[in-house]
Each structure stands twice: as C-alpha cells, then as structure tokens.
Amino acid sequence: MDKVLNKGEDWIQRNLPFCIYRKPNSDKVQGVFQNTDELHKTEKFKEEGFVFAPFDLSKGAILIQPDERIESTHILEEQKVVSTIPQSEEGKLFHINLVCKGLEVIKSGEIQKVVLSRKIDVQTKRQPIELFTSLLNSYSNAFCYLFFHPKIGLWCGATPETLVSIKQRKLTTVSLAGTLPIIDNSVPYWEKKELEEQGVVTSFIQEKLRPYLKKIHSGALETVRAGKLWHLKTPLTGELLPDASVVSVVRALHPTPAVCGLPVNKATAFILENEGYDRTFYTGFLGELNLEGKKEVSLFVNLRCMQLEGGNARIFVGGGITAESIPEKEWEETQNKSRTMLNML
Ligand SMILES: C=C(O[C@@H]1C=C(C(=O)O)C=C[C@H]1O)C(=O)O
C-alpha cells in the first residue's frame, strides 16, 4: 500500500490525529500527522497545521499539528466499486416541510436565501482507507480527504468547493452554486433560478472581500462537473492588502451564502432552529494552514462528506432555497448530492 495511506491506517490503529488529502487535479497525496491525541484549536489561524472547522465557527476550529508530514504520488485506478445501496425515501416529509417553512420566511421578505440540509445514515462494511482510495479514484477534480481525531471522529469527503486559497498574498476563491444532474454528458441549460442564485453568491463574496483586497477580479462564469452533478462557478482572484490577515478573510467569507444563506445572521438562525440536527463539521471548512512556515492557506468547504462511526456512515447533503424553489425538486437535489458518497459505500 502507498506510504501515506499506510501511515493513515497506522494512525487510526494508534488512535492519533491526522488528515490525508489530495488537492483537486493533483496526483500528490499528502498527510499531516500529530504525535499526541491532544485537541488543539486555532483562533487566529496563525499556527502551522491542518485545520478542520465546524459550520458554527464559535465552537472552535480544530488544528492538527504537523509533527510529521509525508507525501506520495497516487496513480489513478479504475474504480470498480459500484454501490448496491438503494436510495431511501426516509426523511422526505421532514425535508419537504423544512423547505416549505424556508419558503414562507423567504416570501415574508425576511430572508433572501437559505441553504437547508439533512443527514442520511447508512451501514457500510468498507474501511476508511479503502473509502478514501475510492474517493481518490472517483473524484479527480475534488479535494478528497480522510480526517481523524480521537476526540472529534472520522470524516471523509470529496468537495468541489474552495473556500479560499492564499499564496504569496494572492487570494483565490470561487462562487459555487446551482446544481443539476449530469445526463448524457451534455452541458445543461441553466434556468433563471440557478443563474440568479449563483449571482447572489458571487456578489456577496465580492462585497465581503472588498475591504481586504487591492482589486478583485471575477473570471468568466463556468459550468463545472462534481461527480454526477453540474454546478455554476465564478473564479475570483485578488491581491491581499498589506494589513489583511488570514483570519479576517476567513471570517468574512465563512459561511458563504452557498452553504448558509442571506442575510447570514437570519439564515443561520433559521438553520439552527429548524434543520433539526447538528451539522457539526458539514459546511465548515478544512485544509492546510501555513505549512512549511509559509503564510499560505488552502481551505475547502466541507461538502459531499460523511462521518464514519463503527459501521455507520452519516452522509450530509443540502441545497440553496430561494423564492423559486420547488420543495420536491429540492428533495431530489439532496438525493442526487448524496450519490457522491453513497456510491463509495
Ligand atoms: C450545500 C451543498 O452544496 C452547495 C449548494 C449548492 C446549491 O444549492 O446548488 C451547490 C453547491 C454547494 O455550494 C451540499 O452539497 O450539501
């Protein structure tokens, strides 16, 4: 077995914290391993390590200290595993009611957009390293990871969404929203609803970043593939002003309306009151923090992910609700999104 995967396996056996991961379109698998089971947190994002932050950032972002770091090259293999797990209709009524409630608040004018989500519990016999290998082979353009901390749990995912990357003071992020299933590989026709929804996310990010950047450049709107789904994406770049800190940028961006809603405070309150479960680390973010002493970060939004516990896999899925949303379609969208992880089990 590959040395990074081997070490991950070893760290699970030894009950020690680590994250192994591969960045989008890279063949490099990297690992950050901590030698004690201490739970470290970061508030200022100035430390070196791997950060794993919850949706509710006030609960504190976890930091894995880079006591050991290794990397290797992963050669893609054809993915042979095809899931036999059927899609369940469980939770449909609750989710549809939740979307209807969201729509009422949107129609009252109090909220413009809210991202509503749910969890799906399924049994699996697959082992964490085996699952991570399947993610690597199936989702080459995603950020694939396997995270473990004995005091937090075991998570894995293949996210299509960058929160923010900062290299030599150059900032890169994306506005990602709008979802359609991939059918026959043909590029989809985007309706007004999706285009508007994604436009709102783009404007929010631009506004939020303006105080920290010299200039902000928006690239062309693209249709991108994430597993069996299409999304709309606008790349955004800029140069950080000399006094702009990483923590201020992260706090300005998180949570974006792609995972929370608008206005952020009201959408957050609606989510916490009505979703009926705790998102914990789903729609939080994760990634490299100042590794090798460089003031560089590479953070991704924790989407298309699941938490593994014993033989249970808890998959998390959600979607943006706006005035034009149709509850039944929103349910289907979460079903489609769940396939990204379900197909690995
Ligand atoms: C919330 C999720 O995805 C987010 C919501 C999207 C949407 O509403 O269309 C699209 C991509 C993500 O920004 C998820 O995958 O669970």
From TrEMBL:
Keywords annotated in UniProt: Isomerase
Residue ranges of domain Chorismate-utilising enzyme C-terminal in the record: 98-337
Uppermost EC category: isomerase
Range of residues in the leader sequence: none
InterPro entries referenced in this protein's UniProt entry, alphabetically: ADC_synthase, Chorismate_C, IsoChor_synthase
This protein's record includes keyword Signal: no
Catalysis performed (reactions): chorismate = isochorismate
Entry EC number(s): 5.4.4.2
An annotated Gene Ontology molecular function: isochorismate synthase activity
Source species, domain of life: Bacteria
Assigned protein family: Belongs to the isochorismate synthase family.
Protein name: isochorismate synthase
